[in-house]
Amino acid sequence: MKIYKERIDLQSTTQIEFMDITDKVQDVVDRSGIREGQTLVYVPHTTMGVAINHNEPMLLQDFMRILYKIVPVDAQYSHDLFELRRPSSLADGRSNGHSHCKAILLGNSETIPVEKGKLVLTERQNIFAVEFDGARKRDVVIQIIGL
Questions:
Q1: In the chain, N or C terminus with fewer CB closer than 10 Å?
Q2: Are 48 and 19 in contact (CB under 8 A)?
């Protein structure tokens, strides 16, 4: 059994952004040399998520519309009051309770099987790192376990 881990760096440019990282994850799998196993895609951030779905522009717009509807930016979040009351040296200046709530709905990891050195995804499945609090520099941990 072999374990290989690598981080990939990302830069989000908008508040909510679906960043297709499928090719980057496959590149990490290729570098790992692992042919059979599983790949963990994990975002170590509390205002990001990971999702697998179809990379179709109108569908991505639907996802964003639903996320804004379920967790509106302008609702009253207790976290935002906490951020505003923190000393300026500790606060990051963002009222981002909505971002944390969106992220908990989506989750921060996905596991994808690896067969013959390739991610087991259909032609209509893509791996997205989903930003809820952009624009920011981010990283994603990719860990492959197998033979």
A1: N
A2: no
CB atoms < 10 A from the CB of 131, how many? Answer: 27
CB 138 within 8 A of CB 14: no
Q: What CATH number belongs to 10-32+40-105+123-139?
A: 2.60.120.460
Q: Which of 110, 108, 118 is nearest to 146 (CA)?
A: 118
C-alpha to C-alpha distance for 147 and 1, rounded to whole angstroms: 5
Query: Following CA atoms 65, 24, 126, 9 in sequence, which dihedral angle do they give, to the nearest 10 degrees?
Result: -20
The CA–CA distances, whole Å, from 102 to 43, 50, 113, 130 equal 14, 11, 26, 10
| Cα distance between residue 79 and residue 108, in whole Å | 19
pLDDT at residue 89, rounded to an integer: 53
Q: Strand, helix or coil at 104? A: helix
Is residue 129 pLDDT above 80, yes or no?
Answer: yes
Compute the CA torsion angle 28, 29, 33, 34 (nearest 10 deg).
150
Mean pLDDT of the chain: 93
Q: Which amino acid is at 50?
A: V
